[in-house]
Design a protein that fits this description.
With 386 residues, this protein is mainly alpha-helical. 74% of the residues lie in helices and 0% in strands. The longest helix has 53 residues, at 298-350.
């Protein structure tokens, strides 16, 4: 008597073929197959398997089989989700880049006395490069997940390293004075570490390039590459934690010590610097948990990718805040000059001077000094250096 064969029985019978079992196992480890190719290969395992009189499998066999199928489909879904999120991050980064370039151009138009070369400050250049590196990295990473390619993977790793380098140099230039005040005895050692950091961060992609060019598939190379990645990540996180410690110490000192002079620009840099450094630490924490168990913590890999563009988004907000503060200080200085001129004209009129005597105050002693006193000096807007 023929037994009715269930779909589960057909799938189990297909899995009993040794060759197909090996192919199925390889699907989870194949680095060069695209998601579409994996799905097609997976479906082909169970095609054209009309089996009659096949013995019904046990319940545990069916459960194990369906769990394996579910795991594979979940992995496909997770990789597709991560790829499209990365492509979305690429779009967000390009929008942020357009905003930053437009903001710099508007400032350049407002300050007509400045040449365009003044806009190419280290801060602006590093910020643009950081956002551009993150945008291109997200695009290549998402593309190579959908269609694996060794060259794209290496390019993505290089861009990731350059993103980290631009962030560290940007943070160093911004926090140099704060670091000198918080860590005066260790300042020289920290500066040496900052100079050596790019070499450490570029080691992993350089080893990857050498491995691909030489076609070296030795397991020892993979092990060495893994340790180099750990060293590079540790270097980056250590320096970022140093920046966070510096910014938080500066904020705590200015809030506690009422006698210390407060530089509003340093306060803005420290506040936004704390946020950016905290985001970097959070990104590293997400990436660490994802590396420990990618299947269980797959969503943390996506979260880590989403945090990365927020770092330079925070730095762009810092630039905007510095420009707004500079504009306020400039307007306050102009208001002081107007009040001083009005008081001076009123004094001259009261003394019978017949007006303002040429449209300006000539009595410098009225304000305890000459007309070149700080009262008459307008602060230069710091828009191009914000």
């Amino acid at each position: 008597m023929q037994q009715s064969v269930t779909i589960e029985a057909q799938l189990l019978q297909a899995l009993n073929t040794t060759a197909r079992q090996q192919i199925l196992d390889g699907l989870f480890k194949e680095p060069h197959a695209s998601l579409r190719e994996k799905q097609i290969l997976f479906n082909s395992l169970f095609a054209n398997n009309t089996i009659r009189d096949a013995p019904l499998p046990s319940t545990s066999d069916i459960q194990n089989l369906m769990a394996l199928i579910t795991s594979f489909q979940s992995k496909i879904y997770h990789e597709e989700t991560e790829a499209w999120v990365l492509l979305g991050i690429c779009g967000f980064s390009f929008l942020l880049l357009v905003f930053l370039l437009g903001f710099i151009a508007v400032i350049h138009q407002q300050n007509k006395t400045a040449s365009f070369s003044n806009s190419a400050t280290p801060f602006n250049v590093l910020c643009v490069l950081g956002i551009l590196c993150n945008a291109l990295f997200s695009f290549l990473e998402g593309t190579q997940i959908l269609n694996p390619n060794a060259a794209l993977n290496i390019c993505a790793r290089i861009l990731e390293s350059f993103w980290a380098i631009t962030y560290l140099i940007f943070s160093w230039i911004r926090a140099e004075k704060q670091i000198l005040s918080v860590f005066p005895s260790s300042f020289r050692a920290i500066r040496i570490c900052i100079c050596l950091a790019p070499c450490v961060l570029l080691l992993p992609p350089c080893v990857s390039i050498w491995s691909v060019v030489s076609k070296n598939e030795d397991d020892r190379v993979e092990t060495a590459l893994g340790w180099l990645q750990v060293v590079a990540a540790s270097c980056f996180i250590t320096l970022d934690a140093l920046f966070l410690r510096c910014f938080s110490s500066y904020l705590a000192h200015t809030q506690v010590d009422e006698d210390s002079p407060i530089d509003t620009r340093f306060l803005i840099i420290s506040r936004y610097g704390c946020v950016a450094s905290s985001l970097c630490l959070l990104m590293f924490l997400f990436a660490l948990f994802h590396a420990i168990d990618p299947q269980r913590w797959w969503f943390l890999g996506i979260a880590s990718a989403c945090v990365a563009p927020l770092v330079f988004f925070t730095l762009v907000l810092m630039k905007v805040a510095l420009h707004v503060q500079a504009a306020r200080e400039l307007e306050a200085a102009r208001a002081r000059m107007r009040r001083a001129k009005e008081e001076c004209d009123a004094t001259l009129f009261a003394l019978g001077g017949g007006g303002n005597l040429g449209g300006g105050c000539i009595v410098g002693s009225r304000f305890g000094g000459s007309t070149t006193d700080a009262l008459w000096t307008l602060p230069k807007p710091d828009a191009f250096h914000a």
